Amino acid sequence: MTEPTDLAGVPGVIPYVDNHSGLRRLLTIDISSHRQAAVFVPLASIDGRQYVVSWGAITFEIPADRNVHVSVHLQTNYSSSSSMATPFASIVLGPHPGPVRLATQFTNAEGSLLPVG
């Protein structure tokens, strides 16, 4: 586990911005390119706070001493795609001292966030 201030200065890490003074760890999400990547933009949410992110590996600082809700969904603004389902995946990570890596897997409107390694 890492003290809260240890991760705040790490380049490329999105800091945990909600009120939490406990220990923290790193979460990396590998967001694989969707078959219709030109239509969708990926959005990741940590405890309900949404981030517009890019395809590939994204690293977040998250609490290590409590549950954390993580979700990824693909958003589209194309009006011609109004009947198209927007894929999503969600998981609740339990408390744990070490870093975690998840990978997305989308099939139509359903998806999964699976542990890697």
How would you summarize the topology of this molecule?
Layout: H1 4-8, E1 13-14, E2 24-31, E3 41-46, E4 49-52, E5 56-63, E6 68-75, E7 88-93, E8 100-107, E9 110-115
Parallel strand pairs: 1-5, 2-8
Antiparallel strand pairs: 2-5, 3-4, 3-6, 6-7, 8-9
Molecular structure report:
With 117 residues, the protein is mostly beta strands. Strand 8 and strand 9 form a beta hairpin. It starts with a helix and ends with a strand. Strands 1-5-2-8-9 form a five-stranded mixed β-sheet. Strands 4-3-6-7 form a four-stranded antiparallel β-sheet, with no helix packed on it. 4% of the residues lie in helices and 48% in strands. The mean pLDDT is 85. It contains one helix and nine strands; from the N terminus they run H-E-E-E-E-E-E-E-E-E.
Subunit arrangement of the protein: single chain
Order of helices and strands: HEEEEEEEEE
Unreliable runs, pLDDT <50, ≥5 residues? Answer: none
Structural class, judged by helices and strands? mainly beta
Measured as a percent range, the helix fraction is under 10%
Distance between the termini: 18 Å
Q: Which band does the percent of strand residues land in?
A: over 45%
Number of strands: 9
Largest sheet: 5 strands, mixed
User: Within the largest sheet, what's the order of strands?
Assistant: 1-5-2-8-9
What gyration radius follows from the Cα positions, in whole Å?
Answer: 15 Å
Overall geometry comes to globular
Query: What would the average pLDDT be, to the nearest integer?
Result: 85
